[in-house]
Structure formats: structure tokens, C-alpha cells
Amino acid sequence: MNEEELRRLIDAYLSGDVSEEQVDALSNLLRDDESVRERFLQQADLHACMTVDETLWTQPADTGAMSQKLSRARWKIVSSWSVSAVLALVLLIVILPTGKAGKVTVVTDKSLGLLFDEAGAEFEAGFGPKEGRFESAEYRLQAGAIHLKLVNGTEVLMRSPATFRLRDAMHLELLQGDLRAIVPPAAEGFTVVTPKVEYEDLGTEFGVSVNKDSSASQIYVFDGEVNAVETSSRKVLSLVTAGKSMQFSREGLEPTSVPEHGKFLAPGELGLARWSDWRRSFVQDPSLIGFYSFTRNQQSPTVLVNEATKAGPAAATDGAVHGARWVAGRWPGKDALLFDRADDYVELSVPGSFEEISLSLWIKVDQLKYEYNALFNSDVWEPGDLHLQINRVGVVRANVNGKQSLDHRVVSSPIGLDQWQHVTAVISRPEGKIRTWVNGELMWIDDCQILHPLSPGKCRIGNWLPIEGWQQAPTRAFAGRIGELAIWKRPLTEPEIKAQYEAGRTTLLDDK
Amino acid sequence: MSETTTPDRQTAAHQLFIRLFLESERELLRYVMAVIPNAADARDVLQEAALSIWEKFDQYDQGQPFVPWACRFALNKARVFLRTQARRARLTDEVVGLLLAQRIEASERLDVRKAHLPDCLNRLPSHLQEVLYAHYFDGQTVPELSQHLHLGVEAVYKHLQRARGNLQTCIERKLASGSGL
Fold first, then answer.
1. What pLDDT sits at residue A319?
2. Taking CB atoms and an 8 Å cutoff, what residues of chain A touch B140?
3. Beta A171-182 vs A191-193: how paired, if at all?
4. Residues in chain B within 8 Å Cβ distance of A370
């Protein structure tokens, strides 16, 4: 074997494009000849350097081929993801056995708190927060519900109608309505002031109601203890403990029955309420051919129901769940499917062919294990087939079979791990564009010529059925949770994509 | 790490470990890819190795370079990984052992070759640069490249092979001419 033949043999081995006989021949040569091993190591290292050293591709160059580059800084961050996941695990297990990372929120000097979440919230004119910030002022909630976070970490949840004044971060005066306060140790002493009684926290979670007309108030302590202090005399009337409810009226403070379940709004209920309202109107869109809310069907948990009711014959089929397991979704009471094994998937069919298609999903990525991690992939890979995948560095890309790419570029940061995120893809054949968005922000643009109508056919959610007989077909199993999938036979507009993200996000303070 | 280590020392050790590991990750991956050319598999092996390296980190002498010490664990993991793979289309365990031993000894020579790579890449014809960029940086598989470039799969393999062959030739010419870096 001459030098050139040896080089080609080694190259073929490194590319995975090699027969069993060729590997045996190469093994023999490598075993017997140190110089062959040296040659092999040189070629393997060239291949390795081009794979791992991003600076080779990001130095200034004047060729057209180098024009579609990610920034070096971005690549440096994302290229460590695979191993940083392990490092994070080590940290969590060994260094941080308890507790979790807090979100850093910048609050201006005058702000006492931020609107953390809301569902249909409307305030009386002149009595609402400014740009989601609460200052020392009176607020009148006329519709919907709110969840606010004060600068000392106290969380306050309330439904309309409610009127309250924030005196400072430690004193909230409740004039009307029901509220739940969740007080961290750092804010012990947080007080809800009512017309006659002040309820002073001693490290706890409690609910307070005030009747506007009678000025009577009621407290229920979920956990910990609360002092009930008479405003006029500053006398402690009672120490109210967990599971107890007291009412203050003309007769004074006296025990009362435990309030009905649901009287005090709980964290997580807001997001679910907001999403449920949106879902009712959303499914009326006749261009929506598939809507899978990922709500577990108690009778048939292996069926993922298509809830798009107006699609007619173009409707996608129900999904068949294979392996993926039902778990908690974005909020308490919302389901999702967990995909954590290589053979987990949901199978469905999208019949017909289309000029334009949009897809959106709510996903929570645990790991990007493979070069491509499938979100929604047509089986095999035939003309008109569609693939929506995340690559190893976190770029969400859509692709169709039968496409001539003219230019493609990444325009925003890669997708994050371990948080619920909204992913959208819009594929337009007439426009010659494939685009993806994450959390309402454009991520990827592919200017292209799409040669065939889009015909997804049989598809898998969270996985890919590769081409039969492709022996080295890569695994593309998604690792994480999926909590929603919608498919339209038209292109979504950017305002629509942003509105969907806003309606479905877990809280208003989600990171973009 | 020892269970008797105090929390502060453990935190400091973690911080040092993470810094060293992140700084060395590419170099370690380069070592592993000497015998596992598939990048995804090599990254998985390095993930496994990261845990082993951490477990033995109290044995690491901070006066010594980290990469040569840590690469032993990575190469062991690589060898274990290869043993679990189907026998078809892989090198024998004996050959893998020989290659790994020689890889450590060849480090400096390979570093010299690597230093010529950027210039050689710039000298490649643009169509070969493009195919390498799409494959290595953009992560496109050969079938995907085949579709994007409107070439057969075999033709794409040949393009990649030609590009890598040209790079080897360029590096060797530079070494032979004693070309400065």
C-alpha cells in the first residue's frame, strides 16, 4: 500500500465510511508499523482539531465560505455545554446539597416590588403599577389576578377585586379582597395591615381577607405563625398557628371555619389560568391543523389527543405515545411528556401537502446529547419531509427535504437548558424562507429555494425514524420535556409568535 | 474526593477543578478523538471522564500540568467505550492501546503540525473550505451536505477527503521547508 492509499484508508476510517475488511487491514498495518501509527495520529488529530478548535473558523477571512459565522464568544460559551452539564451535576450534588440558584432582579430605588405574573389583570386608571413596578402607593385591581414579588423576597398573590396600599416593603395595607403572602425568613415581620388588626408574620405563609363594607378581616395560616395585633392598642390579640383560621369583627377576634379551598390564590395557578383562557380562543383558528395540549387522557394515556377542532380533513391525527412518560408540566395541574430514553417518541401523521407550515412547541431541554436532537421530524427523509431539531450547540433549526440553501445564519443566542421555552418554526415555500424563534426572538434564518410542497406525513415528536438500511444513522432522541405542540397550515406572523409566548410563559419574569 | 474534606476546602477544590477542566476541555477532546473519531461519541466519553477526574482530583498535584494528568482518565474511558462497541468496523483493543501510548508521546509533534493548520486552511480552494466549514463548524452530516451541495454522498466524502488530504500535504510542505510560524 502506497502513501496515498494509506492516507485514503485512514481518512475513510475517520469518516466512518469504511468496510469491515478495510478496518481489519488498517488494524494489521497499525499493529505492525509505528510509522503507520504516526500517520494515523496525524490525520486523526487534524480531524480532531477542526472539530474542537472553533478559532480555526472564526478568525478573519475573506472567503464567502466563512461568511456565515457565529461569533467567537458565543461559540466559546456553547461548546462547553456537554461537559458543563456534568460539572453542574457535580456542583449540585457535592457543593449545593440544598437550595437553588436565585434569580437576580434589578429593582430601582423607588420600586418596592415587581409584577411577577398576572392573568387578565386590569387596574383602575391611575391605580396600577408602572411598567410592572410597584411603589409606595395605592393599587386597585379590578379584573384578573396578580402575583407580585417585593424587594425583600415576600410574594403576594391576589385576585380581583382587591384594593391595597404598599407603605413600604414590610407593610401592605389591605383595604379589600383576599391575598396570600409567602414570607421568606429574611422578611420576617412582614405585616398585612387591615382596618382593625395588623397581621404580623413570624416566618410563614398565610392568607388574609378583608370585607370592604364591614371592615372585618379573616386570617388563615398555611404554615408557621402569625401575630394578630390590634391596631389601636398595639396589643397582641392572638398568636395564630398553622392550620388555624381567625376572624376579627365587631365581636373581636375569634376562631372561625377554615376557608374554602381555592380562596387564596396559589403560585402556579396564575400561569395555568392565563394559558387556559388563551387556549379556548386559540383552538378556534381554522388554519390550526394540530394542537396537542399534552393533557393526560386518563382513560387512554398512550393517546395524545389533537384538540384542533376546526381543521376539517387537513387535521393531523392523534399521537401514539411510545415510551415517553407523563410528568408535571409548566405549572401545577399542567401535564407534559418526558423523553429521556433513546426510543421514546410520539408518533402521528400530518396528511396532505402545504405551501407553508408553522410549528410551535413548549419544551424544557435537559441535555443536548446528540449532533441533532429531534423535536418534530418526519420519518425517514424524503422530498417534502420536514425536520425541526436542536443541534448540539443549542441552535434550533428547521429543514425540509428538497431545498437549495442560498444563505443561512444564526441571529440570536442558543437555547437554554432546564427551563420552559417556546420554540417556533415557520417554513414558507413561496417566500423561500425557513425561520425559527425561541421565546419570541428570531434565532435562525435560512433563505432558500424549496423545491417541493411540504408534506410531513408520518412524524415523530421527540425522535426520528432514520432511513432504513443506513447503518450508521445517528441517534437524534430529544432529552427533556415537551408540554405543547401546535401545527398550522399557514405562516405565523412575528406578533402572533410573541403573543403565544406571552400567553404560555411560566411567569412574567421568565428569562428571554 | 474524600468525604472528610471540609465544605470550604471542597468548594475551593470544585472551583479549581471546574476552571482547569474548562480550560482543558478542548485538549482532552483532542486526545480522545485520536481513537474515537466520532465527535458525539468522543464528547460522551469526556463527560464520563469528567466524573472520574473529579473523583480522583484530590490526587492531582497542582504543581504539575493538568492535561497530561487528566488525559489518562479520558483515554481509559475511551478504551472502555470502544470495548463496549460492536466489534464490526473498529480497531482491535491491542491497536487502540498502541495508538493511545503513542498519542501521548506524539503530543509536541502534533502541536507543531496544528500550528500550521490555520494558514493551510486559508490556502485551500474556497469550495473545499466551504465543505469543511459546513461539516466541522456547522455540524452538517454527510447526507445533509449531500443535499445542500447537490452532490452524491460519495462525492461529499471525496470532497472532505480531498480537503483533508490537501491540508496534510500543505502542513508537510511547511514542515519540510522549515517554515516559521
1. 97
2. none
3. parallel
4. 40
Question: Do residues A467 and A454 lie in contact, with contact meaning Cβ atoms separated by under 8 Å?
Answer: no
CB contact under 8 A, A37 and B99: yes
**B98: nearest CB among A30, A90, A474:** A30
With beta carbons less than 8 A apart as the criterion, state whether A113 and A134 touch: yes
Residues 6+ apart with CB under 8 A from A99: none
For the sheet with A457-461, list strands across it: A303-304, A319-322, A345-350, A457-461, A372-378, A386-391, A396-400
User: CA A129, CA A350: separation in Å to the nearest integer?
Assistant: 45
Cα(A200)–Cα(A231) distance, rounded to whole angstroms?
11
Q: Is the pLDDT of residue A1 over 90?
A: no
Residue A134's pLDDT is what?
Answer: 92
CA distance A471 to A295: 37
Whole-number pLDDT of residue A82: 36
Q: Which residues of A touch B37 (CB under 8 A)?
A: 13-16, 44, 47-48
Residue A259 gets which letter from DSSP? P
Rounded Cα–Cα distance for residues B103 and A39 (Å): 11
Q: Which residue has the cell 473498529?
A: B90
Three-class secondary structure assignment of chain B:
CCCCCCHHHHHHHHHHHHHHHHHHHHHHHHHHCCCCCCHHHHHHHHHHHHHHHHHCHHHCCCCCCHHHHHHHHHHHHHHHHHHHCCCCCCCCHHHHHHHHHHHHHCHHHHHHHHHHHHHHHHHCCHHHHHHHHHHHHCCCCHHHHHHHHCCCHHHHHHHHHHHHHHHHHHHHHHHHCCCCC
Is B33 an interface residue toward A (CB < 8 Å)? yes
Q: State which amino acid sits at residue A254.
A: E
> Percent of chain A beyond pLDDT 70?
88
| Under 8 Å between Cβ of A433 and A421 | no
Q: How far apart are the first and last CA of chain B?
A: 42
CA quadruple A479, A84, A423, A76: dihedral positive or negative? negative
